[in-house]
Amino acid sequence: MAAFEALFKDFSPRVRAYLLKLTRDGQAAEDLMQETMLAIWRKAGQFDPERGQASAWIFTIARNIWIDAWRKQKRPAFDPDDPALVPPPGPNAPDLLEQKQSGAALHEALKTLPQEQVELIRLSFFDEDSHSTIAARTGLPIGTVKSRIRLAFGRLRTALEEIK
């Protein structure tokens, strides 16, 4: 305790002057000096005299504390009303009902297609496979895959118009 008191008396004015030069604010320099001296007290066991002088170690701690304080100061204040932080509004009841009805109509229309066309639609639009991948998977020529998907769309369009 006596050693820390001597260290404090010797280094606190010098650390405060150093921090005053960095901050140009007397109160901030005083606060950062207190924080530095407290950090020195906590980290005293980490000091290694073989790596350098105590003064270099102390002023490095002071500089790091000043950098941390400066970074905190430069961060923008949190604004809970920032549009980027506000989640998008959820769908309202009419939109949800329309989506549900559209989904049901699509399922009904898919029932009118041959199973092979339903499978091609599923691979292309639900699994998001490319036409060449579908052709390789099914063993069909790519032109056949494209024409069957186009035919399936035409039948789906007709079926959906009949349902509505």
Strand content: under 5%
Secondary-structure-derived class: mainly alpha
Number of domains: 2
Radius of gyration: 36 Å
- Quaternary structure classification: single chain
Question: Quick one: overall form?
Answer: elongated
Determine and state the CATH class of the largest domain. Answer: Mainly Alpha
The percentage helix is over 70%
Largest sheet: none
Helix/strand order, N-terminal first: HHHHHHH
Write out key terms for the chains shown.
164 residues; Rna Polymerase Sigma Factor, Chain: A; Arc Repressor Mutant, subunit A; elongated
Q: Outline of this structure?
A:
With 164 residues, this protein is an all-alpha fold.
List the helices and strands and how they pair.
Blueprint: H1 2-23, H2 26-43, H3 54-74, H4 93-111, H5 115-126, H6 131-138, H7 142-163
Helix pairs in contact: 1-2, 1-3, 2-3, 4-7, 5-7, 6-7
Description:
By secondary structure, this protein is mostly helical. It has 2 domains: 2-74, Rna Polymerase Sigma Factor, Chain: A (Orthogonal Bundle), CATH 1.10.1740; 108-163, Arc Repressor Mutant, subunit A (Orthogonal Bundle). The protein is 74% helix and 0% strand. Helix 2 packs across helix 3 (54-74) and helix 6 crosses helix 7 (142-163). It is elongated and about 90 Å long. The chain starts with a helix and ends with a helix. This is Sigma-70 family RNA polymerase sigma factor. GO terms for molecular function: DNA binding; sigma factor activity. Keywords: DNA-binding, Sigma factor, Transcription, Transcription regulation. InterPro entries: RNA_pol_sigma-70-like (IPR039425), RNA_pol_sigma-70_dom (IPR014284), RNA_pol_sigma70_r2 (IPR007627), RNA_pol_sigma70_r4 (IPR007630), RNA_pol_sigma_r2 (IPR013325), RNA_pol_sigma_r3/r4-like (IPR013324), WH-like_DNA-bd_sf (IPR036388).
